[in-house]
Amino acid sequence: MNLTSANDAPSISARHLCVSFDDISVLSDINLDFYPGKTSAILGANGSGKTTLIRALLGLLPVHEGSVEIHGQILENFKDWHRVAYVPQKLINSATVPVSVFETVNAALVFPSQKMSGKEKKSQVLSALAQVGLEHRAQDRLDELSDGQQRRVLLARALATKADIYILDEPTAGVDSANQVVLVSAIRSLVAKGSCVIMITHELGPFKHDIDNAIVLANGGVAYHGPVANLPSEAESIHHNLGTTNHSTTNQARLLD
Amino acid sequence: MLSYEFMQRALIAAVIVGLIAPLVGVFLVQRRLALLGDGMGHVAIAGVGLAFLTGTEPVITALIVSILGAFILELVRNKSKTAGDLALALIFYGGISGGVLLTSLAGGKASTALNQYLFGSLSTVSTQDFISLGFAGLLLIAILIKFGNQIFAMSLDLETARVQGIRVTAMSTLLTSMAAVTVVVGMRTVGLLLVSAIMIVPVAAAQQLTHSFKSTGLLASAIGVLCATGGLTISFYVDVPPGPTIVLLSLAIFILLALTTSSLHLRHKNEIQEQAPHTH
Hints:
The complex is a heterodimer. Chain A is an alpha/beta fold. Chain A has seven helices and ten strands. Chain A has a single domain, classed as Rossmann fold (3-Layer(aba) Sandwich). Chain A has a six-stranded mixed β-sheet with strand order 6-7-8-3-9-10, sandwiched between helices. In chain A, strands 2-1-4-5 form a four-stranded antiparallel β-sheet, with helices on one face. Chain A is globular. Chain A starts with 11 loop residues before the first strand and ends with a helix. The relative contact order of chain A is 0.18. Residues 236-257 of chain A have low confidence and may be disordered. Chain B is mainly alpha-helical. Chain B contains eleven helices and no strands. Chain B has helices at residues 5-30, 36-54, 58-79, 84-106, 110-119, 127-156, 158-163, 168-186, 195-206, 213-238, 242-275. In chain B, helix 6 (127-156) packs antiparallel against helix 8. The longest helix of chain B is centred in the C-terminal third of the chain and has 34 residues, at 242-275. Chain B is globular. The A-B interface holds A 55, 58-60, 79, 81-82, 84-86, 88, 91-94, 96-100, 102-104, 107-108, 110-113, 139-141, 157 and B 26, 29-32, 149-150, 152-153, 155-167, 203, 207, 210-216.
């Protein structure tokens, strides 16, 4: 099932996408479209393939079968990576050599295909930090910030790029409720400007009024794709039809919080 | 000391290695590849051994062999299921074994000469070496200016760098090759067995004081120049090999800064506790 949007072409499309690790299928026959000006939430129990799906959409994992298109171009031919921003759960090497908050955000503006002046970069970095309420911490070491503040810095990295596709892996995990409001507001402003936002989340709580499409992954496929409003009854049916474990039921109950 | 021409050349070579090695080392530390320089040093030993055997120029031969080793290392890491540290160990052992074997086959005074390359020697920097080292140093600085931002983004997070369109395999190979060139730049003064230390120890010392990657690189470079020239000067007057002297001086600065910053942190913590209201 695809939820189509106005007359826009999809920002990202997946067709018959299959991902396997060592011949074990993790995702099979995934067909999804993500549209500009829409927010999509990818939901599912632990191990359901949420992170695998976004990594496959970004070309970070080899796709066993099927294809991904970004802005109408096959992933392998896509070059305009400055139009795509990715927020991982955490940076791999953030706590080895001291790295300042400014440098962390600035590094997201390094694009081999697009040159920016130092002045332009500085302006975008400080503006993005202001959006997440951390401009006063620009010169501090990243590893001196709390986990929640570090997640805000990661979102600032994405905001600074001024991309039109944002892929976020649990953007509010570990962020307190006051700062979740800041993050939700920043993400809402991206969508208002026509950006396509795709996020993995374990709980819809802070976003429940902002999600246009909810996608629930289970047993390697899309178990539900539709409006959040229909999610509760669908989730029950998913549980019944797919015979998911009690653990999944608990997780799905959390999604609806 | 400066009236000797060989010392003038050795000091300038020391400034070059002290300046460049930590600037490359800071990226290696960020990528958790602090021992990469050691591996490249061992590969360069094979290059020196090959130069003895073939009668070619050791600096040039070591440079070619080290860069070749850097490409093989990246190939093994990327194309096989061998873990990064295991790939490094394989290159490490192959390099030193090959170097000693080739030197032994070369016969004559090669074994004695190898010692000068292993631990550095004041008198071994020839004019031709000096030109090669200067050129290699300038090349490294040019690469850092051109690709430093991309290598930093990759060092911070490989996956987001990939999404930014950065060619991470190419940048990783470039960084490993830069480590290989740095090893050869430092082999005359610090020696192949210890040259990795001048890439890493000044970075460890500098990061006790700094808050950013850029300031860590610059301070480490300043510490590198201080230790390389200071160690060389001590080596001249005390008649000990320069390599160990330079490295021990770097370690002394690291220990001094580590102790000072720990003591300051402790004092700061105590002051905060004293200022906090007592609740009984």
